[in-house]
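Here comes a specimen:
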Amino acid sequence: MEDKLNRLEIIENLTNILLQLNLENGVVLGLDAGWGKGKTTFVNLWEKYLKQNYQDFNIIKFNAWENDDSGSPLLSFITELDNVFPNNDKFKEKGVKLVKNISINIFDFFLKYFSKDVLNKDIIFNLDENLITKEKERKELKENFKKELIGLSKKKKIIFFIDELDRCKPTYAIELLETIKHLFNIKNCIFVIAWDKLQLSHSIKTVYGNDMDSEGYLRRFIDLDYQLPEPDKVLYLKLLLTKEQIDNKYYQTFYEILPVIINVYDLSLRDIDKLIFYLKIHFNRIKIKGVIPVYQYTYSLLKSLFVIVKLKRTDLYIKIRDRLYTTLEIEEILSLLSVNKIQEMINTDYSGIDDYIIQIIRTFLLCYIDKNNDQERKYVLFKEKTWDEGLYLKYFCGENNIFKEIDFLEDIDN
């Protein structure tokens, strides 16, 4: 089992904590991290760790986002449990009866209470009696379901890994949490919910109003709350470069600068995934076209920067791509691009680069906005302002420029 991001120690500690807890009423662990911070990767590694080191777990992975169109988290959970315990017809029968009962009660309530006949007092009286009967039936079905579930968890603990909950519809996310709280609070039943709690709390407010204490509401469902530390992004980048086989001796300086840009723009792991997707296609393309290495550096640097800008600052990307700036605004754009900060960090870590990055981007912005498309003038500018000579200007400013390539790749990715 590979632990390339050095997270195995966290998994071992969390597993030991769960095993030491009193699991009489189950336990719910909230695994909190922002979007793109590696929650799914962490959960996948944890699953592999349990399978390799423990025999007393039945493991269920549940992608909430892929199931939020089902309308019933309970039915989805029962389906997943049926996959693990395929020959337990009694459990399945009790579960399906409970799902039907809950659905029918809700339908009857809205149909009768919001129909014209509700004005009839006799109907209201009969309805109230009927509701009491149905509620008793529901409680009985609920207890029968939990008894069967307890029977499943006697020999082995059941651990659910719930992922992508923060991407679900708020109503579905709440119903899922309520289902866990009221139906799965049984012995030896563990839920690990990987979520961006802050994002989910904001989503809940859009449905139930800004006055709702959504974060306090979510805390009701969690027994343990763990903030997942972000992995080393530079390490992650280098692992992906090696995995995708786009690491190359010609680009050594480029690969020294790219980690700096990633830190300046605070890219998430998912942002880095998308960047590597673009770079893999990009490097294959320039090899096919036969661009010599000395030119590949400048082109790769500009393309990487603008991919990142599109990910993090779409408004600025559009302004540059559509030439919505003047020559007088170039220094301001350089500031918005954080180029000075990038250059400063590079000068701190590496020697011999001087202000090369600033000069490349400044010259590109100046040439790109040249509406007269004076190729000879652009050639002179590039030759004077950068180390490269005879740059392939059509790759930078022509009809098939960098931005068109980036936008085309995003269409493929989406």
Q: What stands out?
A: The chain is about 65% helix and 5% strand.
